[in-house]
Structures are given as structure tokens and as C-alpha cells.
Amino acid sequence: MVSANRGTFSRLGFVLAAAGCAIGLGNIWKFPYRTYEHGGGTFVLVYLGAVILIGAPIMAAEILMGRRTQQSPVGAFLDLAKGITGGKLWSLVGWLGVAAGFMILSYYSVVAGWTVFYVGKCLSWSIGGFAPEQAAALETDFVQGFLQSGTMQISFHGLFMLATMGTVVLGVQAGIERVNKILMPILFIILTFMVIAACFAPGFGEAMSFLFHLGPVDASAILDGVGQAFFSLSLGMGAMITYGSYLSREDSIPRATVMVCGLDTLIALMASVVMFSIIFTVPVAERGDTFSDSAIILFTTLPRLFYGLPGGAIMSPVFYLLVVFAALTSTISLLEVVVAYFIDRLGWSRRKATSIVGAGIFALGVPSALSLGANETLSTMKPIEAAGAGFFSLFDYLATNWMLPVGGLLIAIFAGWFLKSHLTRDELEQGHGPLATPHRIWQWSLRVVVPAAIIWVIAAVIGGKTFT
Fold it and tell me: How does pLDDT run across 225-265, given as a tens digit for each residue?
């Protein structure tokens, strides 16, 4: 059962919404961290190659499947798998995407709530002053005062879920597209302002030299580049299938894919310029554990660095407002993946689907919110050794290391090997024009390159590596 009036994105609306889906904490912090870890420009080059060879082909495949069927992930697989080996079993891939969206949003909105809290904190520091003793107590205040407060964690988690639900309930054009048309340009303007400000930081020259310095490439950098490209673009959970189902047949899937991947990469590079300029301005002896793969560093180390710079009183709250917007555009897409299923397959109204699904995701997020110190049992549980301690870490490990890679692998195999060649070529050429050779390259990539790369990622996870 498919809703008769699902809504359609405008051309610009789709690009901004899809880019908003991809742009999040992974761009603002994870990409700079990985770049630092692997020596700067070397990792950037590897990442760009991974986006072109792996990320873009999967994204185009997901958008293609959504637009071809005009359905969310489960319905898209059911429709396209008719007459194909495995038949209805392929719908399990769609179900995996819906489950991943549900799970990821439940804990991602907890972290997103931290960004709202820190906008307020930074405004108070900028107005009232940021004393040295406050800088020394940042980590203690955040971990013991904020993370371990169950009331605070649940409240800000709920606040962010309400903002997400308030957008999705308004629909594709009036809600998702309109909000992304407002937030994405503002996000870009804020980041541009911060890049310009970073140009005047003493560490700017060192930052640029580091960011574009090419050194030796090793297997670890390539593996992390593949993982970063895959996860940064929000692939493997059907978000692009869902958004693709709202794309007009007059629009070009290849052009949209290039624009979304380009915007996502540009934002990551701009964030890196800002981060490295700030961090390299601080003397080596004072940096401490500045770089970490944990998002918590965003809220313990960065404020101290910001307020040690000229203009930091302005840059700090503006930066956290940027992170709020990046997080919100991502949570909107995660919720829409799940809501679209109930609208398309069960015929629920958007209001009913958003309310019930949103409430369910909020409830599932409560254990994550309490597992950061507020509740000892939830914070110390370790059912999977590799996941680390806590309910939050468990969900993050399962979704990031297993659900998304497996989903991406199966989507690539399905689109590359099981969908008829004339069908995929016809869909890619709609709104674009002849693509005989590019189509063959795209298909070869989905059949060989993408599966090989994702299998490598999964093998690394089996071997003990984590992508979180």
C-alpha cells in the first residue's frame, strides 16, 4: 500500500535535504580527527577517492531505487525484487534500514541534545566571561555535572526529538524541504564565517600545510578512508532510498549525487580548516588530548581552546549553533526513514506515524541517555566486549559496525547484480541524458569495487576494529 500523496522535493530541496542527511557530527569532528590521525593530506586524498569509487555509486543506487518505486526501503525492495531470486527476502534489507534508522536516532538525539545545551552554556560564558577556573573544570562539569544527570540527559534528548518530530510532521515540502532550505544555507554561512576567522589565527598556516601535506599511504588510512566515506554519506540504512522516492523524474540522479557528495566533502574540509587552525594556534604543551574519536571532546576541550583565541567569545556559541543545525538536518532524515514506512506500507497519516514512531524512538533513547553515568547498570553493562561499556556504546557499535555496512553491501549487490541493466540505465538517464559508458562503470563499481571495500570493512570489524 502506497500513499497517494507522498510529496515531492524540488531540485534544490532534494540536494539540500540529502546533503543535510549526510552532514552531521561525522563531518564536524570525526573527519578532522581521522585526518589528524593519518597525517593530513594523505587521508584527505584517500577519502576523496573513497567517496568517488564507493560512496557515490551506493548513493546513486539508493536514490535510483527510491525514485523508481516511489516507496521507502521496505516497499522499494518488495517492488524491485518481484521475479528476482530471493523475492520477498530482499525486503529484509529494507527492514534492516528502518531498524537502523530507529536505533541510530534513539542515541544520536541524545548527543544532539548536548549541542543545544552548549549553545546556552557558551552564550552565558561569552556574556559573563570565561574564567581560568572554568576552563580547568570543564571536563569534570560536563562528565559529572551534565552527563551523569539523568534529568538533564532525558530533557535535552526529548527537546531534540520534539524539534525533529515538529519538522517531519509538516511533510516533505512544508517540513523537511523548508527546514533544510533555511538551515543548510545558514550552516554554510556560519562555517564560511568561521573559516574566514580561522584565516587570521596564528595556526592557520600550519593547519593548511598539514591539511594538504601528502605523505605515505598505508592500509590503515585506506580502511579508515573507506569507512569515513561510507558512514559520512549516511549510506546503508535506506535514508537515500526514502529521499529518492520524493525526487522528481525530471531531475538527474547523477547530478544530484555529485552535488550531495560534493557538499558533504566541502563541509568536512571547511570544518577541518577551522579545527586545525584553532588547535595549531595553541602551544603543543597546552593542547593535551585535543584529538579523540569521542564526540565528548567537542564539549570538554574545544570551549577551552575557543576562549583562548581573539574573538572566541563570538566564535564559540556560533560554532555550537552550527553543530545544532548539522545534527538536526541528520535527525530529520533518520526519523523520516521510519515514518515513511508506516505511511507507505500501513497507510497511517503523517501525524499518526510521526507521533507514535517519535515517541517510540524517544523511549528507546532513554536507556542511552542514562548510560553515560546516570545509571550504573546501564553505564557499565558490556554484553559485547568490542562495543565497550554502556547501553549507548552498544547501540552505536551495532548500528555503525554491523547494520550500516551489511545494509550497504546488500544494496550494492542487489542494485549491481539483480536489477536489470536496462532498468537502472533508464532510471539514471531520466532527467539527464545518455549514460552508456558511465552506466557500465557505475554497474561495475557496484558489482566489484563496492562489495570488496565493504567486505574489507566488515572483516576489519570481525578482527576487532571499530568504526564509531
Answer: 999 998 889 999 999 999 999 999 999 999 999 999 999 99
Which amino acid type is present at position 179? V
Amino acid at 463: G
Which amino acid is present at 358? Answer: G
Tell me how far apart the alpha carbons of residues 2 and 74 are, in angstroms, rounded to a whole number: 11
264 closest CA partner among 8, 48, 13, 45: 48
C-beta atoms surrounding 164 within 10 Å: 29
Would you say the pTM of this structure is higher than 0.85?
yes
Cell readout for 297 is: 571532546
Three-class SS state of 9: strand
Pick 11-461's CATH classification: 3.90.79, 1.10.260, 1.10.4160, 3.40.710. 1.10.4160
Q: Could you report the per-residue pLDDT of 9-19, keeping only the tens digit for each? A: 999 999 999 99
**C-alpha distances in angstroms, 50 versus 57, 199, 221, 402, 433?**
10, 29, 11, 19, 26
Q: What is the DSSP letter of 383?
A: S
Cα(417)–Cα(421) distance, integer angstroms? 9
Measuring CA to CA, which residue among 430, 446, 448 is closest to residue 66? Answer: 430
Domain residue extents for the chain: 11-461
Cell of 168: 517531519
